[in-house]
Amino acid sequence: MRIKTIAGVEERLAKVHLAIAIAMLGVWRIWLYLPFCVAVHLFLVWLTKRDESIFLIYTQYSRQSDVYDPWVRIDRKSKVKRPHGFGRDILC
Q: What is the pTM of this model?
């Protein structure tokens, strides 16, 4: 599945970056932001080339990071447990 890109950057990241750039350069006329804006865009292009779905991965992680606990605890009384075969109730 190909991710839609704008100027080499994943679409949602490009829209956020463009909105911030328009606010800084167009509305508040902070022209010193221009070199920083170019550097951020090049960094986002590099991230998109490295992994096209980087924004999707980050958003999924940000939703699940508080739920998943990678450490095994036998006395844990949580509703969210690891499935069998993935270290459930086993001390390593």
A: 0.64
